[in-house]
Amino acid sequence: MARTWQALLLLLAMLLALVALTNQAGKKTFISISEVSKAESHVKNTVQFMMDTFNQENEDPYNFRIIRILNIQKQVSDHMEYHINVEMRRTTCQKLQVNTNCGFQEGELYKQIKCYFSVFVIPWFEKFKVLKRNCTND
Q1: What is the pLDDT of residues 45-57, one digit of tens each?
Q2: Which of 37, 50, 84, 117 has the fewest CB atoms below 10 angstroms from its CB?
């Protein structure tokens, strides 16, 4: 009878250890966060993806373009995340136009916004995903 209880206790201990390990594996391991330059590798592709996604998803009939990058932070964990703050303005190019040399809107159509983006990046697989976007009128 004592051996049965010992076996049950051992089995219960193994089950608890397995649950604890599984729970720990689901947590993101935070490694570092640092301010980075817009010249750092992977930033250009990340910003391009971010802008393409913004212009596709935005309901405005005109494209926006960055006028100033305020700051960029890189967070490293089991993947990379870029946290990017920018100022953008509405351009004269409509969404269906491919031309990237568009001027900025003036007069009634003038619009400037500040945006924060959080972008998931696995650069070696060229995988990007905008996790968060928050824009406010300037």
Answers
A1: 999 999 999 999 9
A2: 37
Q: Are 82 and 69 in contact (CB under 8 A)?
A: no
What six digits make up the tokens of 16?
């608890």
CA distances to 20, 55, 67, 110, 126 from 98, in Å: 52, 12, 19, 21, 22
Strand order in the sheet with 127-137: 32-35, 62-76, 80-94, 112-122, 127-137
Task: Pull the structure tokens for residue 118.
Answer: 């959080």
pLDDT, tens digit (0-9, with 9 covering 90-100), for 59-70? 999 999 999 999
- Domains of the chain (ranges, CATH numbers): 30-137 (3.10.450.10)
* The predicted structure's pLDDT at residue 20: 54
